[in-house]
């Protein structure tokens, strides 16, 4: 049977606001008052970026003093402030998703927002709802998002948006929509039928809108043949009309050209097409500082000529102003002073506060224990410990040596691309293990390469060996070890399987730690009898080693759960990178839905994760609340009755072990056998 998933996340009530919360009406009243003071030239200034590297941020608009509008700053990114110093490099979205913890999702978002505001950033370009992650081999930027499951992704993005905006910065839900692979993303069309779009890809964006997100970023790709930023059905029909989105749509900025590999530069293509479709802000304005503005004077001329209605220009400006007022950025908001994206962020204030504690908590609680034979973990003061693999150490050239983290040298704590941040520091696994070993009196040895012979030699003399392997991915403007954004396959990089095999051949207590952007095929190492534990550490950010030691030594029992499925073979996933347009022929059946529908046994199922304790469930009670639709008023997120509570489910959970632990209760709901589980498609709305 095909199952929809509805998940009770970490036994806590979602923090994000109910549909309609917040005072958009007051914000729009202020926006319309300000609009009346603007000329059309002012309005065009408001909606058009000043150009690449023409301001301190990756996206900037000029100030309009007559209404108090500042030099507006938009800055990456989803796990920390890009191009800035003295900020926190948080765990990636995918690791946040694997916590399944709404409170941590909110706390991370709130800390991200606080740092952005302190730097004078008005719009922090995140969080990520697309790509959702239908193609596991890709994982290109899937690691910036939270899960392959639309419900879990929606819960995470809503809590993140609420946290960011409560701190005073505008959130930006991106990339809207169908941006599922890096190959040809500037030209390909994501051809998605209406039901699949609503149940999978649109869902997390709807949750962001319901959480009153201030902005949405339209993506590079085509959607059902039309470019996303020029698709009226997508921007106006679905987002603004059906979901009642109150904020503004901004174009994806610019694909930074580091080589001639990037030929498609920006998501916006034409003046009238983007304006009339429903795009509201053009960023960065020109192409790489060439002063060729698609909007600017061209938009002003189009309004004068009537090819773009006056009402559309007014709507663009009103939406941008309303979001500014809604977040409360019109009073006492800091300016961008002392730092610039273009000087490496040097000179800016230290805004990290105590956010390292949030970063460590997310990294720790996002760790998933996949295997633990005979309770091999937690470690109990081993006499000697060998640490194997370059993934255990900081890149010898420095944690930030590679532009936008565009290399896989040293421990992997985030992927590469525009969704990265500079590390203020990076605690590698070896660094934290060295401190712990000194405290315990453990003899610690290190092989800091991926050499199988060196690794085996060091491991052979130790009581326990920990092997570190990884798998990386990112944006296509950087090619890393033959991977142009998308991964080539689902094997660990640097012959990680061979390294584990060599170590396990000489050490009967081999533990494997994996840092990865997404799922890997682990069959060859799982089968090794001397591999007694496997720890999935994701992309943990700056507190990587500290968080890992917390779990390895039992200071905290692991509670992370997989936000995707780990298969036995790559072919089991049933999806692949498209060389041209993508028909999305798999329909609704991605990740665990596909495995369930096709009766394929995974290696580790979606939601899997072991603990150092055990839990029992009892007293499951299901209570119906309503059988008829309630209020059908249109509110942010769609019609209010889409979110009616029709039942409550409660269960008693008991910790049966001797150590403290946390459990994630997961509830899966499927169609009754009497109901067809694949109802016919209705007439497409998009």
TrEMBL record:
Pathway: Glycan metabolism; cellulose degradation. One of its GO terms (molecular function) is beta-glucosidase activity. Its main location: secreted. The keyword Acetylation does not apply. Residues 1-17 form the signal peptide. GO terms for cellular component: extracellular region. Residues 70-321 form the Glycoside hydrolase family 3 N-terminal domain. GO terms for biological process: cellulose catabolic process. It comes from Botrytis porri. This is beta-glucosidase. Its EC number is 3.2.1.21. It comes from the Eukaryota.
């Amino acid at each position: 049977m095909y199952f929809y998933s509805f998940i009770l996340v970490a036994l806590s009530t979602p923090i994000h606001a109910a549909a309609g919360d917040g005072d958009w009406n007051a914000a729009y009243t202020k926006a319309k008052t300000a609009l009346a003071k603007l000329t059309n030239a002012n309005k065009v200034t408001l909606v058009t970026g000043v150009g690449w590297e023409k301001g301190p941020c990756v996206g900037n608009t000029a100030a309009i003093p007559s209404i108090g509008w500042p030099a507006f700053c938009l800055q990456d990114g989803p796990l920390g402030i890009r191009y800035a110093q003295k900020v926190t490099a948080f765990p990636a979205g995918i690791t946040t998703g694997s916590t399944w913890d709404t409170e941590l999702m909110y706390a991370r978002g709130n800390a991200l927002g606080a740092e952005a505001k302190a730097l004078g950033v008005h719009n922090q370009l995140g969080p990520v709802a697309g790509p959702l992650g239908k193609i596991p081999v890709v994982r290109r930027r899937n690691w910036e998002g939270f899960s392959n499951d639309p419900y879990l992704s929606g819960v995470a993005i809503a809590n993140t948006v609420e946290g960011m905006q409560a701190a005073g910065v505008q959130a930006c839900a991106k990339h809207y929509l169908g941006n599922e692979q890096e190959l040809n993303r500037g030209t390909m069309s994501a051809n998605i039928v209406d039901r699949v779009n609503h149940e999978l890809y649109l869902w997390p964006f709807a949750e962001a809108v319901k959480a009153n997100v201030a902005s949405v970023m339209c993506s590079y790709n085509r959607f059902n043949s039309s470019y996303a930023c020029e698709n009226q059905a997508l921007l106006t029909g679905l987002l603004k009309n059906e979901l009642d989105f109150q904020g503004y749509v901004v174009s994806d900025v610019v694909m930074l050209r580091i080589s001639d590999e990037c030929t498609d530069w920006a998501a916006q293509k034409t003046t009238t097409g983007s304006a009339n479709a429903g795009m509201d802000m053009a960023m960065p304005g020109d192409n790489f500082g060439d002063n060729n503005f698609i909007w600017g004077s061209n938009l002003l001329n189009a309004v004068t000529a009537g090819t773009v209605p006056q009402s559309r220009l007014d709507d663009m400006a009103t939406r941008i102003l309303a979001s500014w007022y809604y977040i409360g950025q019109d009073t006492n908001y800091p300016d961008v002073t002392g730092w610039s994206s273009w000087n490496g962020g040097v000179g800016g204030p230290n805004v990290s506060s105590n956010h390292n504690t949030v970063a460590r908590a997310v990294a720790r609680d996002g760790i998933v224990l996949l295997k633990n034979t005979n309770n091999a973990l937690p470690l109990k003061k081993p006499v000697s410990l060998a640490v194997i693999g370059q993934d255990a150490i900081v890149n010898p050239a420095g944690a930030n040596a590679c532009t936008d983290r565009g290399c896989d040298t040293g421990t992997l704590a985030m992927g590469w691309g525009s969704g990265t941040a500079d590390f203020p520091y990076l605690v590698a696994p070896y660094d934290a293990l060295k401190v712990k070993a000194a405290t315990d009196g453990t003899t610690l040895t290190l092989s800091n390469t991926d050499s199988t012979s060196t690794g085996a030699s060091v491991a052979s003399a130790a009581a326990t060996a920990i092997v570190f392997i990884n798998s990386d991915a990112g944006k296509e403007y950087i090619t890393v070890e033959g991977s142009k954004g998308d991964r080539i396959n689902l094997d660990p990089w640097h012959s990680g399987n061979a390294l584990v095999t060599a170590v396990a051949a000489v050490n009967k207590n081999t533990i494997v730690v994996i840092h990865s952007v997404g799922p890997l095929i682990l069959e060859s190492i799982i089968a090794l009898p001397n591999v007694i534990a496997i720890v999935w550490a994701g992309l943990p950010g700056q507190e990587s080693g500290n968080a890992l030691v917390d779990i390895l030594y039992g200071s905290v029992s692991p509670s992370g759960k997989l936000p995707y499925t780990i298969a036995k073979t790559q072919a089991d996933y049933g999806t692949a990178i498209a060389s041209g347009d993508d028909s999305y022929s798999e329909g609704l059946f991605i990740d665990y839905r596909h495995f369930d529908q096709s009766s394929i046994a995974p290696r580790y199922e979606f939601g899997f994760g072991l603990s150092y304790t055990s839990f029992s469930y009892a007293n499951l009670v299901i209570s119906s609340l309503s059988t008829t639709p309630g209020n059908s008023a249109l509110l942010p997120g769609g019609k209010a009755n889409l979110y009616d509570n029709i039942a409550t489910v409660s269960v008693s959970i008991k910790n049966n072990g001797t150590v403290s632990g946390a459990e994630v209760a997961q509830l899966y709901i499927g169609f009754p056998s009497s109901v067809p589980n694949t109802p016919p498609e209705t007439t497409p709305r998009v």
